[in-house]
Amino acid sequence: MLTGLSIHDVVLIDSLELQFEKGFSAFTGETGAGKSILLDSLSLALGMRGDTSLIRQGAEQAVVTAEFDLEGLESAHPLRSLLQEQGFDSEHTPLILRRVLHQGNKSRALVNDHPVSISLLREIGQLILEIHGQFDHLMNVSLHHKILDSFAVSYYPELEEFFVLLVGAYEAWKKAEQELNHQRTLHEEALKQQFHYRQLLEDLDQLVPLENEEELLLQERQDISHYGKISETVQEALNALRSPTDIQTTLYTIQKSLERVNVIDMKALTEASAALDRANIEIQEAYELLRALYDLNQESTEKLHQIEERLHSVRAIARKYGLQPLMLYHSHQEAREKVNALEDGDGYILRYQRELDERLREYQDLAEKVFTIRSKAAQKLEEMVMRELPDLKLPHALFKVEITKQEQPSLSGSSHIEFFIASNKGQELAPLAKAASGGEMARLMLALKVVLAHHGYISTIVFDEIDTGVGGAVAAAIGQRLSRLSETVQVLSITHSPQVAAYAKNHFHVSKYEKNHKTVTTVKILNSDERQEELARMLSGEIVTEKARAAAEQLLRDAGV
Predict the structure, then answer these.
(1) Among 192, 195, 260, 356, which residue's beta carbon has the most beta carbons within 10 A?
(2) SS3 for 68?
């Protein structure tokens, strides 16, 4: 809650220190006394726009400081999370928001005396204090589902468990959706390359490359090339052995001649004949070896031609697909796998689609349960607000919570929630966020705030002349509801109505006086006698009568003060 407000050199205020307590505090004073300056100063400290026109004439700068007590603030309160994220201690120290305006159009924002951005100051301010018509969360459509949910949990506690399950189901659905989209992208990329892989597989199926085939072919070609170097000599040797003066024939003739003359079995002739016979056999063996070598050389020539053609085919396919020849074997295996995967692509995607559909069904089941509870809570909220309206002299006003289903899942469920109102009989319902301001609108908003008081996270609410244009019983009804609202949240109200002010726990009087030839605004908290006198002044005008004092006393008595 707001515990202190320090204002220095803002318009008519030179220096002012105010302390606040729990409950309902009213600010009264004559028109032009400076009540609006208090509101402008508080807004400034909460990060609202300010310019040099707010700096008191003759001063170099204006400084406004708002101090808040965070004791009792729930650990789950969004303000605690925000402060911790920004590195501030939200447990043991008061929260001090300060704004400084300089004549040079410079503005500074500080939180617990640490410089921060104006936007952060505003974000913090919006989480702890609401100014009717400015920081009014009821006017923010994006917060309507949170407001209704906070209200609903009080009557349907199981909703909290559903919210936890809903978040889990949403995240599971989102993950399945992302995975499906990822797989579709991969499949689309594969489809774009399917002609490439299908053509590659067709060519490699015809080629049937072997592992490391180019290296093997090159080695074999080198081995075969060696035979070409000896082919001429082998040919010459074979030609010589086949000539008319064939060596074998000559040797045979000599051997037979020696055998005919060796009638006495001369040892030397016998050995010479045997040697010639062996030579003939050796020559025949040499001939056979040379002949085999010749035939092999002929085969190698053909083989070499085949190797050259194979190398050409391997290298041509490699060039066609921008591959290294040694990669063809593995590319063949990869192409076959890719084509097989493409054949089963639709079935593969279908499995992910079924997973997504299952996660969506789980989410939708939970979202439907949440929608049902929200619908019941919305009806209850409408009924409770409508019960408040007659006493506020709004018997024909309508309040409606519109809940519509959305196809697109979200963390908070597939529901769009928005508050609608109609202030007068026969008037069409209009969005609360777009409704025109005015006394009727202000009273309707008050009724809504009273009903929702136990279900929000704002600790301080400020009303600026919510009683404009009403008096008597209506003003008293407004005072009663402000008092009832203050049982849950701190309430500050600027008012011109004595009936409203009578219900305040604390009564501040705003006035102005002359100081050093300048007009200065001051604020004083009133004791019981001063308070009765102020109410009498509000009832009777400039001249306070005994009758007015008696009426003021009665107002206080009726208010139970």
Answers:
(1) 356
(2) strand
Query: Which residues, in sequence order, are bridge partners of residue 524?
Result: 509
Q: What is the C-alpha to C-alpha distance for residues 348 and 307, in angstroms, rounded to an integer?
A: 44
pLDDT above 70 coverage of the chain, percent = 92
CA atoms within 13 A on the CB side of 201: 15
Q: Is residue 300 part of a domain?
A: yes
Q: What is the DSSP letter of 543?
A: S
Does residue 329 lie in a domain region?
yes
φ/ψ of residue 315, rounded to 5? -70, -30
Helices (H) and strands (E) in the chain, counts: 16, 15
**Ordered DSSP codes for 213-244:** HHHHHHHHHHHHHHHHHHHHHHHHHHHHHTSS
SS3 per residue for 11-66: CCEEEEEEECCCCEEEEECCCCCCHHHHHHHHHHHCCCCCCHHHECCCCCEEEEEE
Q: Bridge-partner residues for 494, per DSSP?
A: 27, 464
430-431: strand order across its sheet: 398-405, 415-422, 430-431
Assign 3-state DSSP to the chain and report helix, strand, coil percentages, each to 5: 60, 15, 25
User: What is the pLDDT at residue 391?
Assistant: 84
How far, CA to CA in Å, does 479 sit from each of 302, 346, 383, 447, 485? 115, 69, 22, 12, 10
For residues 366 and 413, what is the distance between their CA atoms, to the nearest angstrom? 8
Per-residue pLDDT reduced to its tens digit, 334-375? 888 777 667 766 777 888 899 999 999 999 999 999 999 999
Contacts of residue 173, defined as CB under 8 A and 6 or more positions apart, other chains included, come to 356, 359, 360, 362, 363, 409
Q: How much is the mean pLDDT over the chain?
A: 85
Q: Domain total for the chain?
A: 1
Q: CB–CB of 106/71 below 8 Å? A: no
pLDDT of 264-285, one tens digit each?
A: 677 777 777 788 778 878 888 8
Q: Where are the alpha helices (DSSP H) in 389-438?
A: none
Average pLDDT over residues 447-456: 81
Q: Is 244 a member of any domain?
A: yes
Q: Which two tokens stand for residue 369?
A: 């349960």
- In this predicted structure, which of 165-169, 353-357, 408-412 has the lowest mean pLDDT? 408-412
Kindly report, residue by residue over 216-265, the tens digit of the pLDDT.
888 888 777 666 666 667 767 777 776 655 676 777 777 777 777 776 67
Q: Whole-angstrom Cα distance, residue 123 to residue 473?
A: 38
Q: CB 420: neighbour CB atoms within 10 A?
A: 17
Enter the tokens of residue 461.
């609410």
Domain range for 205 is: 194-343
Structure tokens at 40: 């402008």
Q: Is residue 9 part of a domain?
A: no
